[in-house]
Amino acid sequence: MSESNRKIGFIGSGNMGEAMTGAIIRGGIAPASHIYVSDVSPERLLMMRRTYGIKTLTDNFKLFSECDIVILAIKPQQMNQVLSEIAGHKDYAVTERKLIISIAAGIPIRKIEKMLYSPPGLKSDEISRKHLPIIRVMPNTPALVLSGMSGMSANSYAVAEDISICKTILESMGKVIEFEEEKLDAVTALSGSGPAYLFYLAEAMTAAGIHLGFTPEHAAALTLGTLQGAVKLMAERNESPESLRRKVTSPGGTTEAALKVMESSNLKQIVVSAIAAAARRSKELSGD
Fold it and tell me: Which residues on neighbouring strands pair with residue 99, listed in sequence order?
């Protein structure tokens, strides 16, 4: 693999784009001199250039043309405009192999294919499509601290090397699993939105601590320390969450008293239903 010799371009430099940029540089995947970023905000580009020593552009088509790997790190509602700008350019052509990676939530591969593979006024052919493999990725915000969990799906023109390159980039900021694209709505619901569920639990635990008489600072510290320890225990012990829960739940004890309240409220089914609702919404947003 020779990512260090490839030019990697980011269209968009929001939090996730910045997280990936920093991880690529820190992981030695590519030097800063081989990373390009375009964005509508001059202030954002200046910050990225000063912080990471990368090259910045205001022209998306120029970035697309110059880079070997193009990462669409934009909001879903910006996708049509950005791809229309690129594919509608008078000089648009796909003559050399270029990997496209999209991290735009809810945008299915077929929509990106439609715009890049069949641009107005240009003939679409199999050779051009083979030169432009597309991989869709669903990362999550812990990638900002190199603890991300991503799901990815490649289209039929992505070969093993393309998939390996994408995995290398994603693994520089956490973990990644490859799925069929139809599973990415569920990935979005479980891991993409998942950090918010844990943050919500942390809010509730902190509120409970304050209700029991702790200062907000102590309640927050107790909550954070407990959640960190519990996650580490799950990660390092080869046991199911159910097994670990049972070990800390003594008959007639304090933990059992709390869990009885949760079970009487059918909390587990509420969580399952909530995540299912998130998956349905992801599917709706994708147009499926």
Answer: 69
List the beta strands (DSSP E) in 190-244. Answer: none
Joined together, the tokens standing for residue 264 give: 């009487």
111, containing H or E segment: helix 109-117
Structure tokens that stand for 138 in this block:
């669903």
Residue matched to tokens 């909001």: 75
Q: Which residues pair with 135 in a beta bridge?
A: 101, 154
Residues contacting 59, CB < 8 A, separation 6+: 38
Q: Which residue has the tokens 């003939």?
A: 123
Give me the half-sphere count of Cα atoms (radius 13 Å) on the Cβ side of residue 230. 16
CA 7/CA 75 separation, integer angstroms: 22
Cα separation, 80 vs 235, in Å, equals 40
**Residue-wise pLDDT tens for the chain (288 aa)?**
345 589 999 999 999 999 999 999 999 999 999 999 999 999 999 999 999 999 999 999 999 999 999 999 999 999 999 999 999 999 998 888 999 999 998 899 999 999 999 876 555 677 678 899 999 999 999 999 999 999 999 999 999 999 999 999 999 999 999 999 999 999 999 999 999 999 999 999 999 999 999 999 999 999 999 999 999 999 999 899 999 999 999 999 999 999 999 999 999 999 999 999 999 998 888 775
Q: List the end-to-end C-alpha distance of the chain, in Å, as a whole number.
A: 35
> Which tokens hold the place of 178?
């490859």
Count of CB atoms situated within 10 Å of the CB of 225: 10
Closest CA to 133 of 70, 87, 179: 70
Q: Which tokens is 136 given?
A: 């869709």
Q: In whole angstroms, give the CA distance from residue 226 to residue 206.
A: 11
Residue 121's CB: how many other CB atoms inside 10 A?
Answer: 8
Buried b (16+ CB within 10 A) or exposed e, 176-190: beebebebbbbbbbb
